[in-house]
Amino acid sequence: MAEEAAQVETELCHFCLKTGVLCPSCQEKVKSGRLGRSYQDIARLLLDLEANGIGALQHTHLLNVADVEDVLVLVFKRGNLRYLRPVRRKLVRLVEERTGKRVHLMEGDVDERTFLEQLFWPARLLTINKIWLPDGSVETRVILCGKRPWAKINVLKEVAKELKGLSLRVEFER
Predict the structure, then answer these.
(1) CA distance 116 to 163
(2) How far apart are CA 139 and CA 166, in angstroms?
(3) DSSP secondary structure string, 74-124?
(4) Those residues with Cβ within 8 angstroms of residue 32's Cβ, 6 or more apart along the chain or in another chain
(5) Which residues of the chain carry a pLDDT beneath 70?
(6) What is the pLDDT of residue 3?
(7) 97-133 burial, b if ≥16 CB within 10 A, otherwise e?
(8) Residue 142 in 3-state DSSP?
(9) Is 46 helix (H, G, I), strand (E, B) or coil?
(10) Beta bridge partners of residue 168, listed in sequence order
(11) Which residues contact 28 (CB under 8 A, 6 or more apart)?
């Protein structure tokens, strides 16, 4: 029996992605909000790009996608971005061309500080504090320095809310 070629791993089964009809298990993942609104489209796009020459994707696992305004953040399993390093620019360019949005690649399943460092790149993260508000909610205060982040602050705050449920207050060192 011939072994099936490795493909980019996704949270949805490949049959569902190829047919566009979700099985009950995949439907629940989408309906529960665990996956971003654009996850299905981007996963399908990555499968297509892999089949058309970006073989490095076969070593990756797409965990989630955040789609906020004109920005797409693709979240891969920890350690996967090293496989994409040789083709990263090409991959980002192709996804940007097909979606018309700015694309940023990140690793998921990392601690909060690493997540925020990746999100606000190339700005440097100086400090993170938790602020407990009177209504019982918690805000994360982030102080940045250096270069401006790769996207608008309000968009990145929405991405953090969508991916990690973080409510951010962002400041720059004076």
Answers:
(1) 11
(2) 7
(3) EEE-TTTHHHHGGGHHHHHHHHHHHHSSEEEEEE-S--HHHHHHHHTTTSE
(4) none
(5) 1-6
(6) 38
(7) eebebbbbbbbbeeeeeebbbbbbeebebeeeeeeee
(8) strand
(9) helix
(10) 140
(11) none
Let me know the angle formed at the C-alpha of 93 by 7 and 5, rounded to the nearest 5 degrees. Answer: 10
Cα within 13 Å of Cα(87), Cβ side: 17
Residues 87/58, Cβ–Cβ less than 8 Å: no
Six-digit token pair at 9?
A: 């791993």
The whole-angstrom separation of Cα 90 and Cα 76 is 17
Distance from C-alpha of 45 to C-alpha of 101, rounded to nearest angstrom: 14
Helices first, then strands: H and E counts in the chain: 7, 7
Q: Which helix (H) or strand (E) holds 160?
A: helix 153-164
Contact (CB, 8 A) for 82 and 89: no
Return the ∠ at Cα 65 (arms to 159 and 16), rounded to 5°.
155
- 170: closest CA among 122, 120, 134, 136? 120
- Give me 149's structure tokens: 């982040």
Q: Positive or negative CA dihedral for 150, 66, 18, 25?
A: positive
Residue whose pair of structure tokens reads 């953040």 in the numeric block: 73
Length of the chain: 174
d(CA 83, CA 139): 34
